[in-house]
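Sample 1 of the test manifest.
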Amino acid sequence: MKLPSALRITLYIWMGIGLAILYIPLLLIVLNSFNSSRTFGFPPTGFTIEWWQRAVSSSGALSALGTSVLAGVCAMLIALALGTMAAFAVQRYTFFGRTTISFLVVLPITLPGIVTGIALNATFVQVLGPFGVALGLATVIIGHATFCIVIVYNNVQARLRRMGTSLEEASSDLGANGWQSFWRVTFPGVRGALVAGAVLAFALSFDEIVVTTFTAGPAIQTLPLWIFSNLFRPNQAPVVNVVAAVLAVAAVVPVWLAQRFSGDSTTSRV
Amino acid sequence: MTEFRTSRRAKPSESAPDGVDRASRFSMAHAAEKTSDATPQISLRGLRKTFGAVTAVDGVDLDVYDGEFFAMLGPSGSGKTTVLRIIAGFETPTSGSVFLDGADATGLPSYRRDVNTVFQDYALFPHMTVAKNIEYGLVVDKVPKSERVRRLGEALEMVRLGGFGDRRPTQLSGGQRQRVALARALVKRPKVLLLDEPLGALDLKLREQMQLELKAIQRDVGITFVFVTHDQDEALTLCDRLAVFNDGRIEQLGPAQEVYEFPATAFVAGFVGSSNFIGPHVAREVLGIAGSFAVRPEKVAIMPRGKTVVIGAPRVDGVVRDVVYAGAVTRIIVDGPAGLTLSSTVLNTAGELDVSIRRGTQVTLSWPAAALRRISD
């Protein structure tokens, strides 16, 4: 389609403005991480790598990073297992209450995090507390899993629906039993959706702060919690900036992976 | 007397005496070539399948014998595909039984049936090469590698796809995919091959070519082929015997020629080829006989009125309403007496139709007495 050149130029300008709004603040973070001014004065007064050195040796930041990765991986694994099973149940079997199940599985993603947080907190502390359950890493993981499941479920379910059942029928027709069909035909078909779902689930968990606040005990500090509590400490602010810059760059990886893997498996050869 | 394999629904008492006589003589001749006392490869008994409130298959009895090329013909929604899927094991019948090679297979999962399917959309595995697709059934059966390679080579050769083994299904044309699907099913050497509208997705020229190939392959491998189609030309071209499905039931069952020549019901007469229908009222008024009849347009001879009509006793006068030139044939539609409309198909052997026949020409139509088929309604 050929657009009139005036329109084309206008569209380019708007696109430029949109991208600028999205990415200039991120650039600013990266820039500030090298800013020798402690108060992030703009324009930067000088160049330093001091903050980077301090960040690398900051035990608080590193242990928070470790906690976040651990929580993200665990929540992702739970979501993979449960989300995939739910997607199969809903897409491949008919049973009483199927649409209700589908609705209930998806609902947590639309619930405000603060509601999920309060609800889980009340459950863990008031109901399960007397049974010896204390807020800690496990409760954070469970809290994150509630919405991570949705991501995996949606991805896998959509892929299963698009695949249809004819490939599985063909496999069965050729003599493969249920397990063989699953591993040789169904799984390769949904592999891309699983990877995409897992990456997104991890990313969601990694930057979660609201539900985390309500489910983490005093001893647990995930990276977002650490950033939030250190941002306004004059001593720590530059280090926080470095961490934020690292995360902004690191975020490119899962997005790139997710886009690649959620593409058509027949063309991307996943 | 040799069993005349017809639908259980056919009511002989309703057929005209001469019709039954001809039909059974015909089928006796045909059945004599078959070993009709052999165990059928496929036996369906009282098959019914309902989906919710919809009855897809409503009491089907069917025997398909070893080495037959059998067609299940019918319009969409007539239940033919459901019957195929029940034979393959993808659907469980609501009631009734499926016997494969004499053994009850009604509850058997599809992977335990010695039956393979060529799917309408081919259902090739997109993440595997052509070779892996074809080998699939052998791999899951744990066939030793050397034999697998040999059979893969033979299968590729049979469908003329040697050298295509490393391609992906997406890199093939429709006709080539169709062949891969065929090879993938046949490499398992099943006793029965099921084909669900196998040529439906191909264009006309390719379809005609694949029909001949399918027929040749069936002759070579010698196993039973059961295929589902809504295309009556394709059914007549390919099959030895066919079942005409309508509304979940078999309307008529028999050798292709018999079904075409002796349609049992108005539905069959209209669906398999085209027919002129003569209802009971017109039959009494014009022909002076009782009953409903069908006559094929190509058996209706047409003459300008007054000229000698050489064949046939029944004569009907009429006026030409339309002359439709269709390449190989010309179709002439004639308004007869008592609201009767008849069409006559004339082969364009001489290149041009008798120029004296055009719109408005007074003509006389006639046909051999035997061409008039009594049908039940």
